[in-house]
Structures are given as structure tokens and as C-alpha cells.
Amino acid sequence: MIKVFLKPTSVEEAVECKRVNPGSIYFGGGTGINYAGSKAAGECVISLEGVGLTKITTGEGRLSIGSTVTLQELIDSPLVPDVLKKAAGFVYSRNIRNMATVGGNIGANRTDSALIPCLTALSAMVHTCDSEVLSVTQYGAGDREPLILSVQIPEQKGVCAVRKISRSVNSWPVITTAVSMAGNGTGMIDVVVAVGGIKAGVVRLSPVEERILSGELENTDTLRQAVSNLVEPVSDRLGSCDYKKYICGVLVADCVAECREGMK
Hints:
alpha+beta; single chain; globular; five-stranded antiparallel beta sheet
């Protein structure tokens, strides 16, 4: 239960509040903390509303997104690539999109994240108050304590596609996938395949990436089967292990097909 609500007015003050209140939690939009099913524990929260991390800017070959930018602001911004807008739109409720923040989505590191697979495919980097620059997956694999200041997305030289399947538009995603591909005119030079819904957090399917680059997985059915054979999801209320394996293969293959079409 939240008992103390702190409202710093700068990043420095927010970091100091965190230092002097062990166990406190940064509070963006509150969608990951302030609901009945939340597993986030803490009696003290530190609001980030007034610390000035709300800008979306471009420059020096990259897009910079402040950590308290909301999902709806991503969708509304003319600077944000369409594929990231589509990923943000996976959160069906506009009310939630108006509250949920980019930094909060990354910090929660949920396997059903709407954004993390797409940000991973876009090679996004997390900039923290400790002057660290980490990939989204690196940040998620750590203790996730340092305050996220911004997410930096380099200028895209390839194409990216995202997919999601859920039981209804407003239910938790069963599987979310994102794939990016880049070439140099003579062939493919980079592939990223990121998947949510398989295990804790979002994972990259590096063996599949390598086989796509090598040309082994040109056939759609072969690619779909390779993905299904690689992933080991857990059966739960959203679906059985076998169902998730199959759906994951289908979604990754669909993303790859879209990327290949976009590179023509």
C-alpha cells in the first residue's frame, strides 16, 4: 500500500529521494503499480511528473524519447516511426495509453510488454541517471534501479515489423513479436528477432537471427518450424505450451515476410 507520495521537481531531486528512501519506487503513470494485481511492493513512491522527462526530439541521427512520455504521446508524435506507434497501440485502452509511460514499460520488464520487443528490434538504447547507456534487454536483465532518463533510437537503415496475438483486443497478449532487417545493397547484414510471452521479460532469438542471415530460413514453413522448435513457453491461462510455440512461429514468420517485402 502506498503511504508516502513524493513529488520532486528535478532529476537530481528524484534520485536523492530514491537514495534516502530505500525500497521506494519511481512512479510514472502508475499503471504498473497502482492496481489490485500489481506485484510492485513499496510504501513510498517518487512521482516523475515534474522532473521534465517529457520531450520527443530528433538530432544527431537518433530519436530521443523522454522516459515519462506516454504511449499515447508516442502515437500522436509525427517524429515517432509508424512501427513503434503500432506497438504502442497494442495497448487497446486509450485511458491506459494516456497514463502508461515509456520508461515505466521498460522498467517493469513484463513479458507482455507492448513496447520492449519493438524497441529491441529498433536497437533502442536506455540512458540512465548513472550515465549508463544500455540496450533495452540489458537494462531489463539488471536490477532496474537507475532512473531511466530517455530512450534513444538510432536512425533506421532497414525495416521493422511487429505482431501481437491476444484473446481479445483488451486482454493480455499471448505472444508479441518484432523483427527488424537491414541490408547494404548486396545482401542482408543485420537481423533482430525479439519475442515477448515466452518467459520472464522479452527475449531475442539469436539462433534464428543467425540462420536467417545465413540464408537457411528462406522458406516460410521452415522458418516457422525453426522458431517453434526453439522457444519453450510456459502453459498458463493464456494458452498451452504447444499453442504458444505454434503462434510464436507464425508471428515471427509474418514479421519476417513483411520485412523482406519492405526491403525490395
